[in-house]
Every structure is written in C-alpha cells, then in structure tokens.
Amino acid sequence: MNDFAAFLTRPYRIEWGHCDPAGIVYAPRFLEMFGESTIMLFEAALGVRKRDMLEGHGVVGFPMVDVSARFLRPAAYGDAVTLEAAAPEFGNSSFSIRHRLLKDGHVCVEGVEKRVWTVHDAERPGGMRAERVPDAVRARFAQPD
Question: Which single residue of 30, 48, 97, 99 could bond 52 by disulfide (Cβ 3.0 to 4.6 Å)?
C-alpha cells in the first residue's frame, strides 16, 4: 500500500482492553479501530454525526461484507499510534476503505473493509436492501485534480 493517501488521520492510545494477556493488541481489536475510523471518516466528510447521517439519508447502515488485514509489526499496551483511513473507493452500492495503524512512523497493520450502503426495504417489513451510494455522498470524498 505504498500509494496510501490518508483522508482521515487521528491519534490513538492502545489501552489494556485492546490487548491479550501478553499486552499485545488482540487482532480483532484492530478491526474495531478501523470500524470507528470509518464512521469518523463519514462524519468528517458529511459534517454530521452518524445518527443524523442515517436519518438524513434514510440509511440503515453500512454492514461489512468483506475484510482483510496484514499484520506487519506488533502494537502493545500504552503505545501511542496513529490511525489513518483513505477516502472510500466506491462501487455501485459498495465501498472499500483502506486503513493503516502506524507506530513511530512504521506501519503495524494495514487493512481493507468492504461495506454496503443499505436502506430500509419497504417491501419487507424490518428488511433492508443495498442501494447505490448517493452522488452527493460520493462528491464529499472527491479529490481535486
């Protein structure tokens, strides 16, 4: 991921609850961190909190349908790290977000989440369906040429 361009960067501190008994981050915790960054990414781009975004766009949410991660260096209790998230790469109803966690400028973990923009399905009470990510949302992530 040498061509990584961060859209959102945030400092983060590794706490004991993120770690296994040896004090090393338990791998699924990285996915939680990346999921938090995804929400923060959309909030920053759209200028509203997630709950307001969901109501304003009629969205149920964006469930994860695929995820991958590469673990390059350990992160441990007490580490001050940086989380980065790239702008989404949009499909039709899906989007992928690349994430990185860095410690002292070195990549510890890199991952990709693929999520689907979902709305209520009026034909199935309580159901949901995929829908094209609105152009107005896509435009908020457009990079100037």
Answer: 48
Q: Which residues contact 13 (CB under 8 A, 6 or more apart)?
A: 78, 79, 80, 81
Q: Which two tokens stand for residue 102?
A: 């860095």
pLDDT given for residue 38 in this prediction: 96
Give Cβ neighbours of residue 42 (< 8 Å, ≥ 6 apart). Answer: 50, 53
Query: What type of residue sits at position 38?
Result: T
Q: How far is CA 142 from CA 37, 50, 76, 120, 126, in A?
A: 18, 20, 35, 27, 33
Sign of CA dihedral 35, 44, 117, 133: negative
Residue numbers of the domain that contains 49: 6-139
Is residue 1 assigned to a domain? no
In whole angstroms, give the CA distance from residue 62 to residue 54: 10
Q: The domain that contains 65 carries what CATH number? A: 3.10.129.10
Q: How far apart are CA 79 and CA 61, in angstroms?
A: 31
Mean predicted confidence (pLDDT) in 77-102: 97
pTM: 0.89
Number of domains in the chain: 1
